[in-house]
Amino acid sequence: MKLTVNPDRRAVLASLGSLLTLSMAGCAAVPPPPRRPDEVPPTSIPDHARLMYRAMPEERFPIPAVDLTKLEPRFYRQVVDYPTSEKPGTVIVDPAQRHLYHVQDGGTAMRYGVGIGKAGFEWSGRAHIAYGREWPVWTPPESMIARQPELARWRQGQPPGIDNALGARAFYVHEGNRDTLYRLHGTSHPETIGKAVSSGCVRLLNQDIVDLYQRVRFGSPLVVLA
């Protein structure tokens, strides 16, 4: 099954002339939304979550602790029951639930909260994770620079770092031998997890993408549910 794009996205692609050019634009950082009145009270955050999303000064670029008042508890990383016909090692993205699963043995999976493509930029189907990069460089496509001229300074690539649009790690998604230009990548904006905010890329908290990076083997199947 090939990756599919909804009709709204096809209309956008027609106007821009290229799926590959547009899809990479989804990896750009977005302005964080305003604080919600229902954000998690600090007193209700469990200690294991604080430890899991601690600061990571040991990284090449130190990663700050996640502000867990901006993250719904259902998006905390955790092992869950997940019976599936997909083999262990498969990565499954469920856009409707805003979750990513790394399938394990015994009918379980490690589950992560994610941010996904906004309306008109969704995608689904089967592909594979060709390779990954630690602290990758991000280069915005020309179509995105045309919409956001301030990004022209990164035409030759945004250097790696905590403010890089791809965050601490990135997985590069291929369909056959073709780079789809979709990415699974990190973010330092917890308020975007659980939201439809990108133009196709799937984002995880930096702490979660670092954890996932240690688990996923390059070449692993990727399934994005419709």
In short:
With 226 residues, the chain is of the alpha+beta class. Helix content is 17%, strand content 28%.
Key terms for this structure?
ten-stranded mixed sheet, LD-transpeptidase, hydrolase, alpha+beta, cell shape, globular, 17% helix, 5 helices, Transpep_catalytic_dom, L,D-transpeptidase catalytic domain-like, glycosyltransferase, two-stranded parallel ribbon, 226 residues
Q: Can you describe what's shown?
A:
Residues 89-225 form the L,D-TPase catalytic domain. Belongs to the YkuD family. Pathway: Cell wall biogenesis; peptidoglycan biosynthesis. The protein has helices spanning 7-16, 19-24, 47-52, 142-147, 206-215, and strands spanning 4-5, 78-81, 91-94, 99-103, 108-113, 116-117, 123-134, 169-175, 178-187, 196-198, 202-205, 221-224. The protein has 226 residues and is of the alpha+beta class.
Please indicate the count of domains: 1
CATH topology (fold) name: L,D-transpeptidase catalytic domain-like
Give me the CATH architecture, please: Beta Barrel
Helical residues, percent: 10-25%
Q: Give the termini separation.
A: 12 Å
The SS-based structural class is alpha+beta
Total number of helices? 5
How big a fraction of the residues is strand?
25-35%
The total beta strand count reads 12
Radius of gyration: 17 Å
Shape label? globular
Major β-sheet profile: 10 strands, mixed
* Uncertain stretches of 5 or more adjacent residues: 7-25
Mean pLDDT: 86
Question: For this structure, what is the CATH homologous superfamily?
Answer: L,D-transpeptidase catalytic domain-like
Give the ordered list of helices and strands: EHHHEEEEEEHEEEEHE
Q: Determine and state the CATH class.
A: Mainly Beta
